[in-house]
Structure formats: C-alpha cells, structure tokens
Write a structure and sequence with these properties.
Blueprint: H1 2-23, H2 32-58, H3 68-99, H4 104-135, H5 139-156, H6 168-176, E1 189-190, E2 197-198, H7 200-224, H8 230-242, H9 244-250, H10 259-277, H11 286-310
Antiparallel strand pairs: 1-2
Helix pairs in contact: 1-8, 2-3, 2-8, 2-9, 3-7, 3-8, 3-10, 3-11, 4-7, 4-8, 5-10, 6-7, 7-10, 10-11
C-alpha cells in the first residue's frame, strides 16, 4: 500500500509540474477552447483511473471487502459528489478575483498554488474525519446534521452577495503583514518599497485557501458518507480538485448563468447529510445514491439553461 500511495502522489505532482512548468509557464489568458480541452483531459484521466481502481480492487491489490465493480462505482460516486460540491467554489473564486481585480492572465498561477494547498489540507482533514467516523459511530449524526444545516443556510443566503472584505482570514493577513496595491507580474510579494508587502495576488490566494477550508468542512464529511476507504476518498478528492482550475476558465463569464446549478449543488449537500443521519438505520445502495445525485445536478443544469434561453439578449 505504501508503494501505491507514493506512486499516486508522485503522479499528481508530476502532472501539476507539467501543467505549470511546461504548458502554463508564462502568465497568459487561457481561452475557452483550451480550458474545455483541459477540463476534458482531467475528466478522462479520472475515468481512466477509475478503471485502474476496478482492476486494483478486483485483483486484491488493496485489502478491501469490495469487489472491483463495487469499488469502481464507489469511486465514481465519490468523484461526482466532490466534483459537484467543488462547483460552488467556482462562484466564490469568481467573486474573489473580481474584488481584487486580478487580471485573467494571472489567475491561473493563483489557482495553481491554491489547488496545491487544497491537496495538502484535504489529506489532513480526510485522515482526521476517517479516524473519527471509524472510532465514534455517533459522529455520523454530527456530520449529517452539519451538512443539512449548511444546505439550509446556503439556500437562505442564495441571493446575498459574498463580502470578500469581511473575510476574517483576509482581514487578519492585512493586519499582520504590509499590503501593496501593486499587481506585480505573477508575484505574490511586492519588493519595490522599503518593506516586502503582500500583493493583491497573495490576498486572493489567502481568500481562496480560507474559503476552501470552509468548503472542506462540508465536502470531506460528504465523501466519507459514501465510503471510509482512505484510498478512494483521497484519490476521488484529488481528481475532482485537479480539474477545478480549467473548469473555472471554461465557465468564465458564464458562471452566473448557472444559478440553479448552484442551488442543485446545495441540495446535493443536504441529500448527503440525510444519508449520513440515516446511515445506521437505512442502507442506501451506492448506485441508487449516485442516480439521485445525477438527477438533481441535471435538473439544476436544465433549469439554468432554460432560464438563460428565456432571458432577454
């Protein structure tokens, strides 16, 4: 298992290095066709890895009671849940970039380092969550209630704008460190003055990391509601997050049109919460759960497209 984990982490780091160090070495605008191509690439990679999961568990490469087919369904379900919940990040990221006036050519670098931080943060939180659920059965009720309450809160606050200026992590950073308004070319630090100061890029990165911490408090319990298998939980999280950056640029300028998709994602969060609460009383097959989630997401997409088609040009 150690070799498997090391190999997977090495693969992820190699892909990230290839992404930033080769394909996006210089700050430039990623156009929509390129973003769509990269999004398709990351989705294809996740599906190919799902095939690897099938053979890995079917051959006994991982000690588990699941067959290869069961493991593949569980991985795909976890991936869909994490991918859908990560969509909510896109709406927040768009607001953060607008607030700090980050040029599109420099947004890619901010998102890259933000996602790198996410991978580390989620590894820690998945480990802690798995231990809690494995040792304390009643934690499922806590996590489930938390998700349901969060879904209700998000539905009530759907029409309220996000106030980046009131973000406590951003305010703390601005209080502890000098802040510059200069947008240095792709740099997080401004060294032109008498003291080194944080640039708007750095503040945007801090805001994104802070928001992901809050999102992780929802998404980690959500994926743990599907399986406690640490390999499937973390790898599905990683593949969902890796494609987030290119998906943001693919939807750039049209994100606000998918308002109902955001509502659907919130409903998914509530559905996962209900599953956790009922965990010890009602067994819901993974395939049934996956079908329900896909139906909710498709309804959100259809409602958004329908509303956009009826909007005046």
């Amino acid at each position: 298992m150690i070799a498997l984990w090391v190999g997977f982490l090495a693969f992820v780091l190699a892909m990230l290095a290839l992404d930033l160090g080769v394909f996006h070495r210089h700050s430039r605008v990623m156009n929509i066709p390129q973003a769509l191509a990269w999004s398709a690439f990351w989705i294809f990679l996740a599906l190919a890895f799902n095939g690897f999961v099938y053979f890995l568990y079917d051959s006994g490469g991982v000690p588990s009671s699941m067959t290869g087919g069961q493991a593949a369904v569980v991985f795909f379900t976890a991936y869909v849940v994490e991918k859908s919940l990560s969509l909510d990040n896109l709406f927040v990221i768009a607001v953060i970039f607008r607030y700090f006036a980050i040029p599109r050519a420099q947004q890619h670098r901010v998102l890259f380092w933000g996602i790198l931080g996410v991978l580390v943060l989620r590894a820690v939180m998945i480990a802690l969550g798995s231990v809690l659920l494995a040792r304390l059965w009643w934690v499922t009720y806590v996590f489930g209630t938390l998700l349901i309450a969060t879904a209700v809160r998000l539905l009530r606050a759907a029409d309220h704008p996000i106030d980046v200026a009131r973000n406590p992590i951003v305010r703390l950073a601005a209080r502890l460190f000098p802040v510059s308004t200069r947008l240095e070319e792709g740099r997080f630090l401004d060294r032109s003055g008498p003291v080194i100061a944080l640039t708007p890029l750095a503040l945007a990165l801090i805001a994104i990391e802070g928001c992901d911490l809050m999102f992780a408090l929802d998404s980690i319990p959500a994926v743990l509601a599907i399986t406690l298998d640490p390999f499937i939980v973390y790898t599905s999280n990683v593949f969902a997050v890796l494609g987030l950056r290119s998906l943001y640029f693919a939807l750039d300028g049209t994100i606000e049109r998918f308002r109902h998709l955001r509502t659907a994602v919130t409903v998914v969060l509530g559905v996962v919460g209900v599953k956790l609460v009922l965990e010890h009383h009602l067994e819901i097959p993974t395939s049934t759960f996956l079908t329900l989630i896909l139906a909710v997401l498709l309804a959100g997409v259809a409602a958004s497209i329908y509303e956009s088609s009826r909007a005046p040009a």
